[in-house]
Design goal:
globular
């Protein structure tokens, strides 16, 4: 069943790319716009370090590494499942009823109904920052650290996608909460881009232990950077991102299914 749903997803994404390719100039310009928009996020970090030599003891290269890995994870998640935040619009317009009668997963259809190929361009800038920051870091690149970098991006993407799906499930009961859902996911993306210590001890623990935002890049990055955990959390948590990602994906699936079962159409 999973293979069939994966094939259906790939097919629908290919259709979206083929449709967008009919207007190549428009696709190229919109892709460049999406990529350029991410430069503003990096500019904010540049402004901070223009006035400070370090941020909570972290150098520019270290903060850039945190930013790049987390931003790349969220960009990948947003590119491939981000359209689920438009669920509220589909429900209000009555288009979601059609989704339920098609022989394809509801989640797959919702994630591809408003798929924008140009969103993939948002991953370009963070990917470059990851490479540049890794070259600038003064760390000993052992095999475990080298392998951990792509692993943390992949697990971070799963965590981000789980957050998108779980929060979008709220739209089944509150279709008008689209803006609030989008704000919560964007807030999570912003929070993951900086050292957790900038938020204070209590909020940092909340973002790491209660909400798994710290597992996107913060905790595994501490091992890559050879840094002690300022929060004093167990060292084993630095390698727990795959487990946390799997649990988060399972919880997101349960939340989505509960939302689908609760859906009662838009009425007349």
């Amino acid at each position: 069943m999973l293979r069939a749903e994966a094939r259906a997803y790939v097919l629908l994404v290919r259709v979206a790319f083929r449709e967008a390719a009919q207007y190549r100039t428009s696709l190229a310009l919109r892709s460049l716009t999406e990529a350029a928009a991410t430069v503003l996020d990096l500019a904010a970090i540049g402004i901070v370090f223009a006035h400070l030599p370090a941020l909570e003891g972290f150098s520019l290269a270290e903060v850039a590494f945190l930013y790049g890995t987390s931003a790349l994870a969220f960009a990948l998640a947003e590119a491939f499942v981000g359209p689920v935040d438009r669920l509220g619009w589909h429900i209000r317009d009555g288009r979601f009823d059609v989704v339920l009668i098609r022989p394809v997963s509801v989640l797959v259809q919702t994630a591809t109904m408003a798929f924008s190929p140009q969103r993939v361009a948002r991953a370009a800038q963070p990917a470059v920052i990851v490479v540049v920051s890794c070259l600038a870091l003064h760390v000993r690149w052992t095999p475990d650290r080298v392998l951990l970098v792509p692993a943390m991006v992949l697990c971070g993407a799963v965590l981000a996608a789980s957050a998108f799906v779980a929060t979008a499930a709220v739209l089944f009961v509150a279709p008008d909460a689209t803006v609030a859902v989008a704000a919560s996911t964007q807030g999570s993306a912003l929070a993951a881009r900086y050292p957790m210590t900038v938020y204070g001890h209590h909020l940092a623990v909340l973002l790491t232990v209660v909400l798994p935002i710290g597992f996107v890049s913060w905790l595994p990055a501490l091992h890559v950077l050879s840094r002690a955990d300022p929060l004093g959390l167990p060292t084993a948590l630095r390698f727990a991102s795959p487990l946390v990602a799997a649990v988060s994906a399972g919880l997101a699936a349960l939340a989505w299914r509960a939302g689908v079962r609760r859906y009662r159409s838009t009425g007349s």
